[in-house]
Each structure stands twice: as C-alpha cells, then as structure tokens.
C-alpha cells in the first residue's frame, strides 16, 4: 500500500498509537472518525471553528418541534 507504514498499538486505560515521524501532524488536536475498519485522523488547525467546537459540551436539550400544528407544505411544480 503506497504511503503506508506499520505501527504498533499499546493498551493502556485507552489505546495508544505511535505515529512514525514521516506521518507527524501539525498542531495538538485531531479529529478521529471510524469508517468500517478504518480509523481516519484529521489534524485540527489551532484557531479554527472546528477547534472551538471540539471544546464545547454536547447539547442535550430537547428542542420543541417548531413544525407541530402547521399545515403540510404544498408541492411546488414549475
């Protein structure tokens, strides 16, 4: 596989992955997402909106259904 390098996983309280120097990312924060068996790691630039959003707590409020009681929309045909 081009641009790949074997790495080791170390069990701890969480799982630790050492990243080889040639794959080093800039910054101090990353965004992880899983797609099937793949773990995708994206660098989050400092000062970005995404960087700010990762520091906020999840919203757990139940918002009112603002469409409740409205008539259904008419289909617009052009």
Low-confidence stretches: none
Q: In angstroms, what separates the terminal alpha carbons?
A: 51 Å
Series of secondary-structure elements, N-terminal to C-terminal = EEEEH
Residues in β-strands, percent = 25-35%
Shape: elongated
Structure classification: mainly beta
List the helices and strands and how they pair.
Blueprint: E1 9-11, E2 15-17, E3 29-35, E4 38-44, H1 49-53
Antiparallel strand pairs: 1-2, 3-4
Detailed description of the structure:
With 78 residues, this protein is mostly beta strands. It has a domain at 26-56. The chain has 1 helix and 4 strands, in the order E-E-E-E-H. The protein has one helix spanning 49-53; strands at 9-11, 15-17, 29-35, 38-44. The strands form 2 sheets. It has a two-stranded antiparallel sheet with strand order 1-2. A two-stranded antiparallel ribbon has the order 3-4. A hairpin with a 2-residue loop joins strand 3 and strand 4. The longest helix is centred in the middle third of the chain and has 5 residues, at 49-53. It is elongated.
């Amino acid at each position: 596989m081009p641009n790949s390098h074997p790495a080791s996983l170390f069990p701890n309280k969480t799982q630790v992955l050492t990243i080889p120097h040639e794959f080093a990312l800039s910054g101090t924060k990353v965004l992880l997402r899983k797609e099937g068996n793949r773990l995708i790691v994206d660098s989050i630039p400092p000062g970005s909106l995404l960087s700010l959003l990762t520091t906020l707590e999840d919203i757990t409020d139940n918002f009112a259904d603002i469409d409740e009681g409205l008539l259904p929309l008419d289909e617009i045909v052009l």
